[in-house]
Amino acid sequence: MAISRLPSAGFSITMRIAVPADASSIGRLTTAAGEAGAIVTALDVVDSDPAHVIVDLTCDTADAGHADQVVKALTALDGVDVRKVSDRTFLLHLGGKIEVSSKVALRTRDELSRAYTPGVARVCQAIADNPADARRLTIKRNTVAVVSDGSAVLGLGNLGPAASLPVMEGKAALFKRFGGVDAWPVVLDTQDTDEIVSIVKAIAPAYGGINLEDIAAPRCFEIEARLREALDIPVFHDDQHGTAICVLAALTNALRVVGKQLADVRVVVSGAGAAGTAIMKLLLRQGVGDIIAYDRQGALHRGLTGLNPAWQWLAEHTNKENYSGDLAGAVRDADVFIGVSAPNLLTGDDIATMAKDSIVFALANPDPEVDPREARKHAAVVATGRSDQPNQINNVLAFPGVFRGMLDAHAEEFTEEMAIAAAQAIADVVGEDKINPTVIVPSVFDARVAPAVAAAVRAAAQNPATTPPPAADPGPADLPEIAAEASATP
């Protein structure tokens, strides 16, 4: 059975199956699953009797429909009884993915008196006398709010706050796992910019940083800019800056692999939303040769009408030749393609028209802008956002370490110097002697990443003068719609 999408652990199922107790039965199961396009990842015998064997067969499938096809294929086998099918992703989310646990014991009246009343009153008074002590004496020193209005959930669109909660829970779990940062989801039942700004300002005293997540462009730019202006803690929109940091890190090493310089390459970016805009700004700051931005309106170019202010800014500061054609034409002779948009926009034949030793970052999830198997036939380096493909470009490489560094430095803002330092730290973890076409970024499980990023960000926060200045200034910094410029942030 041919399937167009790649099987993924995100659509993993476990089937409890009874088969006849003969030597060939289990082999027939795994063969049938493979022929149906699934990837068998585990097979466990859970019970048996003289006539039957009960097994749990776990498979990665491409999507829910494909999972149903696999089940039907196994059910059709003679003597096979599929008794139960469990979706492993939904099982993992039952009851949520995070919890609050106490850092102090409350076993005796003495301990209770110090952790709560009456002893806690002394600590409250100390903070009232010196508000800066809140960072030292409360959770503020290590806590981040993960804020979303649910208007741009993953690649799924405007699902609202409740549907965004599983993503925000996951983000909080990643903060803890990789950065030792306590984070908590704050999903807001409003998509009004003024209300969001007001709510986040009101809750900010409890947090050492604000991570904005899955808020649609262009509102996300204004929200971030206004919160940065109003708050004395870092405000970081991960969809923008986390993505941009990881892309810059990956591109740094990919260019090392192909022997090209950033100043000499032409880059095509598909998707001029929050992530694409931040990527392009950071590349412009670092002196990229040229960029063509492509979105629903087509290639952004001077003279194109009906653009929002963020797109208008990009049209004025990218696309030196004022290209106005389609995406396939844009990538012709381009050195780099970066996709942060939608699946299946390009074919392998399109990639074949790119410059020699081309680089393709197709980051749409779960299905990339071009099939990575086809892209690898023509491009020198291919990366995706998928965990089951080489060169996974994933924001978890950046945001835990970025916030760890900012919290440790008691930083009051996130800056462009921190972004550049973080990207360089991620790239350097791989090591120039280790990089190759299939290894341009470290694994998300590489224990060196978060500490290296945290150290780099901490150094940039404490002594920004040591961070190399940006190589190019993409333009005015005072447009509210491109709020990332407000504090020299990419």
UniProtKB/TrEMBL annotation:
Q: Which GO terms describe its molecular function?
A: malic enzyme activity; NAD binding; oxidoreductase activity, acting on the CH-OH group of donors, NAD or NADP as acceptor
**UniProt cross-references to Gene3D superfamilies, sorted A to Z:** Malic enzyme, N-terminal domain, NAD(P)-binding Rossmann-like Domain
Instruction: List, for all copies, the residue spans of the domain called Malic enzyme N-terminal.
Output: 95-228
- SMART domains, sorted: malic, Malic_M
Q: Can you tell me which residues the record assigns to a coiled coil?
A: none
- Positions of region (Disordered): 460-490
Print the keywords alphabetically. Oxidoreductase
Malic enzyme NAD-binding domain location is 240-462
- TM annotation in the entry: none
Q: Which InterPro entries match?
A: Aminoacid_DH-like_N_sf, Malate_Decarboxylase, Malic_N_dom, Malic_N_dom_sf, Malic_NAD-bd, Malic_NAD-bd_bact_type, NAD(P)-bd_dom_sf
Pfam families, per the entry: malic, Malic_M
**What CDD domains would the database entry show?**
NAD_bind_2_malic_enz (cd05311)
Q: What name does UniProt use for this protein?
A: Malate dehydrogenase (Oxaloacetate-decarboxylating)
Q: Which organism is it from?
A: Micromonospora viridifaciens
